[in-house]
Design a protein that fits this description.
Low-confidence stretches: 285-290, 347-353
Shape: elongated
CATH superfamily of the largest domain: Fumarylacetoacetase-like, C-terminal domain
Radius of gyration: 24 Å
Distance between the termini: 37 Å
Largest sheet: 8 strands, mixed
Number of helices: 8
CATH topology of the largest domain: Fumarylacetoacetate hydrolase, domain 2
Structural class: alpha+beta
CATH architecture of the largest domain: Alpha-Beta Complex
Number of strands: 23
């Protein structure tokens, strides 16, 4: 097992329509000025016969789920909305011909490319990279992916409303470079991979938003995206030191600290965090050799099922806490079922080896900017423990979620 100096960040992932499994994101590509009317409002004319598409990227860490509250970013007074069709790749390719480009497409979503316009223009005027204007924390907003394998969209309305007023409206047929052309061209520069995401450009009508504004975008036949602008995030100084990796399971304080930091990240992304309290049935308070050995074996089994950014902590004798930074209730239930089966396969050694069962209580929350995240972390553990008590009262080896 690979060890790290501190806990790696969660995997960037997107929700998928009709599927509890999430889609892991590899890279975020953005196409600039891909509608003639938008290029003109940016002061540029595009001649497709002599030009090629151009791109910029954003860090997958800046991906934000639809429905989130995005704090108004610092260092700008002109934060702009840009609604876009988002293409998500399910296959890879390098040097792909346009007539084969459809084979890479997994599906589509609706996205927002939020932009510090004043910063972008200032950098552009100095011939500097746009990073500070475009690669803004939480600025790659994306709705749930609609699976449409091998489908190339050639038309359909794309629109954005701010506080119920239409700001942007066009047709996908107005794209300067279509999906086939974009995938083929981008594959000349990169070996495209499953999970690569392409924001295909925004139509005319981009403009500023303010704290409190509510954005709602849609693409015909694909889906929707929503965003609320929160207040300006205030400086907080130096963060606590990251949790160091250790061969020994972390305890309560380390677990609560990690949960608080994951809630902070989820608040920026608009994602859900789930905690699970896993109790070995008939072991709580039992410090015999058999019980301690069962605890050790089950801890090993549980750890083997978790991803690197998911935390397993020792909470009390016979009881563990699991922190799932990017899991909603549905996906957490799948993992909980797997953990229960895994624990059942672990047998204590000693004079009377026997299989062990576990009971699991789950609690999920999506944090909001107005919450004290340390208090929320403690509340989530208490809620999961309360569910666990109900679970154990109904018999061993059960899984329950908070009603």
């Amino acid at each position: 097992m690979t060890t790290y100096l501190w806990t790696p960040p969660p995997v960037a992932a997107l929700a998928v329509q009709g599927n509890a499994a999430r889609l892991p994101v590899n890279r975020l590509f953005f196409v600039g000025r891909n509608y003639h009317a938008h290029a003109r409002e940016m002061g540029v004319t595009i001649d497709k016969t002599t030009a090629r598409p151009f791109y910029f990227t954003k860090s997958p860490a800046h991906l934000l789920a639809s429905g989130a509250v995005l704090p108004y970013p610092p260092q700008t007074h002109d934060f702009h909305h840009e609604v876009e069709l988002v293409a998500v790749l399910g296959r890879g390719g390098f040097g792909v011909a346009a007539e084969q480009a459809h084979e890479l497409i997994y599906g589509y979503a609706v996205g927002l490319d939020m932009t510090r316009r004043d910063v972008q223009q200032r950098l552009r005027d100095k011939s500097h990279p746009w990073c500070l204007g475009k690669d803004v924390e939480g600025s790659a907003v994306c709705g749930a992916v609609r699976p449409m394998p091998g489908t190339v969209l050639t038309g359909g309305e794309i629109a954005l409303e701010v506080n119920g007023v239409v700001r942007q409206r066009a047709d996908l047929g107005d794209l300067i470079w279509n999906l086939r052309e974009l995938i083929a061209d981008l594959s000349q520069f990169y070996h495209l991979q499953p999970g690569d995401v392409i924001y295909t450009g925004t139509p005319e009508g981009v403009g500023p938003v303010q704290p409190g504004d509510r954005l709602h975008g849609r693409v015909q036949g694909v889906g929707e995206v929503a965003l609320t602008l929160g207040p300006v995030r205030q400086p907080t100084g130096v963060d606590p030191a990251p949790r160091a990796a250790s061969a020994v399971l972390p305890g309560r304080l380390a677990a609560l600290d990690y949960l608080g930091r994951m809630l902070s990240l989820a608040e920026r992304r608009g994602s859900t965090v789930t905690v699970m309290v896993v109790a070995i049935d008939d072991v709580a308070g039992d410090r015999t050799h058999d019980a301690t050995d069962a605890e050790r074996l089950i801890a090993q089994r549980l750890a083997s099922r978790l991803r690197t950014h998911e935390l397993l902590a020792h909470w009390e004798p016979g009881q563990f806490l699991v922190v799932l930074p990017d899991a909603d209730t549905a996906s957490a239930l799948v993992l909980a079922s797997d953990l229960r089966q895994c624990a059942a396969a672990a047998e204590a050694t000693g004079p009377s080896p026997q299989p062990r069962s576990v009971s699991i209580g789950l609690h999920s929350r999506r944090p909001t900017p107005d919450q004290d995240l340390r208090e929320l972390a403690a509340e989530m553990v208490v809620a999961a423990q309360r569910v666990l008590e109900v679970t154990q009262a109904n018999g061993p080896g059960r899984i329950e979620i908070e009603p």
